[in-house]
Amino acid sequence: MRCPKCGSRDDKVIDSRQSRDSSSIRRRRECLSCGYRFTTYEEIERSDLRVVKRDRTHEPFDRRKLAGSIAKAFEKRSTSLVTLEQVVDEIVHDLETGGREVQSADIGAKVLEKLRGIDEVAYLRYASVHRRFEDVDQFVDAIQALGRRVRPDTKQRELFPPEQVNHGRV
Question: Which of 36, 60, 106, 107 is the most exposed place for a label (fewest CB within 10 A)?
Answer without folding.
Answer: 60
